[in-house]
Design brief:
Radius of gyration: 23 Å
Largest sheet: 4 strands, antiparallel
Distance between the termini: 44 Å
Number of strands: 6
Structural class: alpha+beta
Order of helices and strands: HEEHEEEE
Helix content: 10-25%
Number of helices: 2
Oligomer: single chain
Length: 149
């Protein structure tokens, strides 16, 4: 009896776990995948070229990197100017692969950026055709090497 109940439990657990990815094969034999993505994934993909440029400018060469964590995101509303400004401030922890053989581990850098969206909270935001974000560096902090696991 224990075997039968264990068998049904295994089957139940196997089929109850939801898939985060699905795929289908087209007539040409190519696979089309539908995978799960978060809003953070989309945002990071949009700002990735600008972050890459900031890292390249800091180190003077192309580096392999990945976002370790988005530490903070906030909407900044500045009413001190004649025309109020609205923009997002984001702080990222970025892990850079250390290419030196004698290095202790990867570098962990902190990057503060400003994201300006042209039609954010403007009166004509529904008529605005420009959706290009402007991303600028606020502060770049290089941290000590992090030991690899």
């Amino acid at each position: 009896m224990k075997r039968i109940s264990s068998f049904f439990l295994i089957i139940l657990l196997t089929f109850s776990v939801s898939n985060l990815a699905s795929s289908e094969v087209t007539e040409a034999g190519r696979i089309v995948k539908n995978t799960y993505a978060t809003s953070e994934d989309i945002l990071l993909t949009l700002i990735e070229p600008d972050i890459n440029t900031m890292i390249k400018d800091k180190y003077g060469k192309q580096m392999q990197w990945e976002v370790s964590k988005v530490l903070k995101v906030g909407l900044i509303v500045d009413h001190t100017k004649k025309k109020s400004e609205f923009w997002y401030k984001m702080k990222l922890a970025v892990r850079l692969e250390n290419e030196k053989e004698d290095a202790n581990g990867d570098e962990l850098d902190l990057i503060d950026i400003r994201i300006d969206v042209p039609n954010l909270y403007t009166e004509d935001r529904y008529e605005e055709g420009n959706s290009k974000m402007k991303i600028s560096l606020i502060e770049y902090t290089q941290m000590k090497a992090v030991e690899n696991d």
